[in-house]
Amino acid sequence: MQFVAASEVSWPLVGVALGVAGAAMLMALVRKLACQSRELNQLRSDMARFSREQKMAFTATYNMGCRMVQLESRLKVMTAVTAPLEPESPYTQASQLLADGADSHAVAAACGLSQAEAQLLQRMAQTPPSADAQLPPKRHTEPGESHAFRTGWR
Predict the structure, then answer these.
(1) Can you tell me the distance from the alpha carbon of 114 to that of 121, in angstroms, rounded to the nearest whole number?
(2) What confidence tens digit (pLDDT) does each residue in 38-59 have?
(3) Residue 125 and residue 97: Cα distance in Å, rounded?
(4) How far apart are CA 145 and CA 53, in angstroms?
(5) pLDDT, tens digit (0-9, with 9 covering 90-100), for 110-128
(6) How far apart are CA 145 and CA 139, in angstroms?
(7) DSSP state letter for 129
């Protein structure tokens, strides 16, 4: 390989070559900067759109919550107004009549119940539940003994 002496090099040609290379690099950087600028503008646009959508969603959610509070308030008022208008169940009415001393025939006729239902309600009203009422104690089953054997079933 031969080296060229510095006196033989055409310095103006080297300057032009370096200028062209520098200009090419500068153009590449300008293109890259322009591309990045477009991307940045797109990101800013997207961010502004997302911010608007978020505000709209928040407003809608807030308004929906306010509307729910209004509806709950109206429901409470309507429930308070209509509760006394609801008819008593026939069993509640029958229990009240039995407590007032009516017999099962009168209760069945007044409440639209069968005679058997009225008699059952009358017995339930006459027999207060006892505090001593308990289930019979469990019997111990021996190992190998089945429940069917213990109760007589085979």
Answers:
(1) 11
(2) 999 999 999 999 999 999 999 9
(3) 11
(4) 73
(5) 999 999 999 999 998 887 6
(6) 12
(7) P
Cβ proximity of 141 and 150 under 8 Å: yes
CA distance 57 to 74: 26
Dihedral sign for Cα atoms in the order 115, 121, 124, 126: negative
**Distance, CA of 20 to CA of 12 (rounded, Å):** 12
- How far apart are alpha carbons 9 and 3 in whole angstroms? 11
- For residue 147, pLDDT over 60 is answered with no
Q: Environment class of residue 24 by beta-carbon count within 10 Å: exposed (0-12), middle (13-18) or buried (19+)? A: exposed
Are the C-beta atoms of residues 94 and 106 closer than 8 Å to each other? no
Q: Which two tokens stand for residue 95?
A: 């229990």
CA distance 78 to 59: 28
Cβ atoms of 94 and 113 within 8 Å: the answer is: yes
- Identify the CA nearest to 114 among candidates 125, 122, 129: 122
How far is it, in rounded angstroms, from Cα 11 to Cα 22? 16
Mean pLDDT calculated for residue range 76-88:
75
Joined tokens for residue 78: 């309507």
